[in-house]
Amino acid sequence: MNLTFLHLTLVHIPILFVPLAVLLLILALLKSNQTLKATSLALFILSGVIVIPAFLLGEEAEESVEHIAAVNKHDIKEHEEAADFALWLTVALGVLAIGQVATEKFKPDSSKHFTIPLIVLGIVSSASLSYTAWEGGKIRHPEAHSQEKSVKEDS
Hints:
The protein is built from five helices and no strands. The N and C termini lie far apart (about 45 Å). By secondary structure, it is mainly α. Helix 1 (about 5-30) runs antiparallel to helix 2 (about 35-55) and helix 1 runs antiparallel to helix 5 (about 115-140). The chain has helices spanning about 5-30, 35-55, 60-65, 75-105, 115-140.
């Protein structure tokens, strides 16, 4: 295992956890379920933490692929810029979730004010993470980004 592998592994965690946490938080609201709410907050916090090493390991991943002839440096740059934005959104989401947990512990009546911002920021963060993944896929997965349809003809 190398640092590029670790980068590729870690980046998928927030991509999956953030939208899952949004759905769990919405479900928790609809069902007034504190367990689902706590799970969603934990996933937001975990994503906010994991996104940091995932981002930092991106430089190592870049160095491991930039010398490959088929890799377009423009694609790397686009992915890096998208990742920078997704990083800050996801870290902010984790911090907001920590604020929710702390408020529930010390001022339970005020904690409801965090819910809608968490959902909105979670949706925006999910979109940003998804776009970052899309841009990252262009680096080594051109088949997923091709506009041409592959059709097999029976001969």
